[in-house]
Amino acid sequence: MYVCLCNALKCAQFKAAARDGAADVRTVFKACGVRPRCGQCFEEADDVMKTIRRKDDTALA
Ligand code: FES
Predict the structure, then answer these.
(1) What is the DSSP string of 3-38?
(2) What number does CATH give the domain 2-60?
(3) Ligand 1 site, residue 8, Cβ cutoff 6 A
(4) Mean pLDDT value of segment 2-10
């Protein structure tokens, strides 16, 4: 599923970035070699990354 339609970035890319320790959504854009455009995906992308971090934290506890 696409999260960022402007740059064709998929949910899986944001999940992978979160698992790899990406600090925030902008870091993912930069790592993918694209720039944010409209910004409408930021909230959803941030939620995806937070969910992964929470799961990882729970797994470590
Ligand atoms: S949908 Fe991501 S920048 Fe527009």
Answers:
(1) EETTTTEEHHHHHHHHHTT--SHHHHHHHTT----S
(2) 1.10.10.1100
(3) no
(4) 98
